[in-house]
Amino acid sequence: MRLTDKWFTAISQDEKERLITVTGRDDVMEFVRSGKFKERVEITWKFEGNHQGMPSEELAAQMEQVELVLRKVMEDDKLAIMTAIYTGGDQKTWVFYCRTIRVFGERVNEALAGFPLLPIEIYTEVDPQWEEYLDMLEMKEWDE
């Protein structure tokens, strides 16, 4: 399985009708069909955003550093695949599909050890059919 770096961007809204930027990964159907990535992990960073619910430039830069570290640590040996990034509504959420939650958790701790304590929450769910990903993928079709 070959992991590409093809992404798309779409716009959605939260329940308060604030804009949410959705960045979704293309070309991962081979991973979906493999049946090896059955667990979804969502890492959410809540913050006080501007009037549109978006982070400041400084916070956005810090979040980007965290994102790059997480992607590298998780994707180097394909333990997990980042499939989506949702930004807006006073939070940023990274979505991964992974092989094992236990190892994912260990790697998150290792990857983020060099950062100050971050205000993140981690949610996990068994999602062998990649329902969240397929729902998000529909946004690409609406945006085109």
**Shape, please?**
globular
Return the CATH architecture: 2-Layer Sandwich
CATH class assignment? Alpha Beta
Q: Taking all residues together, what is the mean pLDDT?
A: 93
The description of the largest β-sheet is: 6 strands, antiparallel
- Range of helix content: 25-40%
Strand content: 25-35%
- What is the count of helical runs? 4
Classify the fold: give the CATH topology.
Alpha-Beta Plaits
Number of beta-strand segments: 6
Whole-number tally of structural domains: 1
Gap between N and C termini, in Å? 27 Å
Strand ordering within the main sheet: 1-2-4-5-3-6
Query: SS-based structural class?
Result: alpha+beta
- Structural Rg: 15 Å
User: What is the N-to-C order of secondary-structure elements (H for helix, E for strand)?
Assistant: EEHEHEEHEH
* Low-pLDDT segments, ≥5 res: none
Could you describe the 3D structure shown?
Strands 1-2-4-5-3-6 form a six-stranded antiparallel beta sheet, sandwiched between helices. 24% of the residues are buried. The radius of gyration is 15 Å and the shape is globular. A hairpin with a 2-residue loop joins strand 4 (80-88) and strand 5 (91-98). Helix 2 packs across helix 3 (101-112). Helices cover 35% and strands 32% of the residues. It has helices at 29-34, 57-75, 101-112, 131-143, and strands spanning 7-13, 19-25, 39-46, 80-88, 91-98, 120-126. With 144 residues, it is an alpha+beta fold.
